[in-house]
Specification:
Length: 263
């Protein structure tokens, strides 16, 4: 696909996708939503992909949904509006369901759906001066599509305060509530992403995939169901090719095959 609003760069097993509408602070309209969804669905089928990084071009990561585009939706029928909102929900769902880890590299502003994008990343590094916010209520709308992902990350109490007020908050607060994992000076963003890349690339791809799929399932499961789920998950993984390779490599004091050889 020829990307209009994204730039996508592949280096070995790592893909970097950059939101690329810097003039409007990477606000997403229907075209960018379709591209992001297409990227995520294609990435999910890519067996050579091990980690993805989501970033934004220009001064800000993402200013959320395109306000001019949303304003034009007034001329749409209710069915058209629902269909449009659904495609945004599917885009967030596809990013959230990516089988490989998604690292968010966040700077400038991440507002509305931009904060929502941070919530669907597995790991988020943010520049110390980043501004976050569920600003939808300031615009007379609401953080609907992003709410399941955001509430799962920050919990009900923080969601009530931040979504009801629409107040902007900084990177340190974002880290305190679990939206961000590492806060760094803006010139340290790439090094922080590289640290995580090193960790992820030195771990078993199928072990990571099984872990990523297990986390949301244990979070909502009853204590009885969870025992069956977790016993099955470890039983399958330890006899798998990568489980056997990882255990053997440790005992033989050598790196397993998935650790990149240093050049
Ligand atoms: N949708 C559409 N256009 C947007 C936008 C959005 N969500 N956010 C910013 N823009 C546009 C501005 O209208 C401006 O356009 P112009 O150059 O034609 O005037 C351009 O992007 C730059 O914005 P500006 O405010 O001048 O840049 P900034 O770097 O000083 O501030 C933000 C960036 C993101 C902090 C600020 O634009 C902002 O608060 N935007 C609103 C974000 C928001 O509430 N999003 C929630 C949507 S649900």
């Amino acid at each position: 696909m020829a990307w209009q609003h994204l730039s996508v760069e592949r280096r070995g097993p790592v893909e970097r996708v950059t939101l690329n509408r810097p003039d409007v602070r990477n606000a997403f309209n229907d075209e960018m939503i379709a591209e992001l969804r297409h990227w995520a669905e294609t990435a999910a089928r890519d067996v050579a992909l091990r980690v993805a990084v989501l970033a934004g071009a220009g001064p800000s990561f993402c200013a959320g949904a395109d306000i001019a585009w949303m304003k034009r939706m007034r001329q749409y029928t209710e069915e058209e509006n629902v269909a449009d909102a659904r495609s945004m929900a599917e885009m967030f769902g596809a990013l959230n369901a990516l089988p490989v880890p998604l690292i968010g590299r966040i700077h400038g502003a991440a507002l509305g759906g931009g904060t929502g994008l941070a919530a669907v990343c597995d790991i988020v590094v943010a520049a110390e001066d980043t501004v976050f916010g569920f600003t939808e209520v300031k615009l007379g709308i609401l953080p609907a599509v992003i709410s399941p992902f955001a509430v799962a990350k920050i919990g009900m109490s923080n969601a009530r305060e931040l979504m009801l007020t629409g107040m902007r908050f900084g990177a340190v607060r974002a880290r305190e509530i679990g939206l961000v994992h590492r806060v760094v000076p803006s010139d340290g963003l790439d090094a922080a992403v590289d640290d995580y890349l090193r960790e992820l690339l030195s771990s078993s791809p199928s072990g990571i995939a099984a872990t990523k799929s297990l986390i949301p399932r244990v979070a909502g499961a009853s204590p009885v169901d969870v025992r069956a789920l977790t016993s099955h998950a470890i039983a399958v993984q330890r006899v798998s090719a990568e489980g056997q390779e990882g255990l053997t490599a440790f005992l033989e004091r050598r790196p397993p095959w998935w650790v990149p050889r240093s050049e």
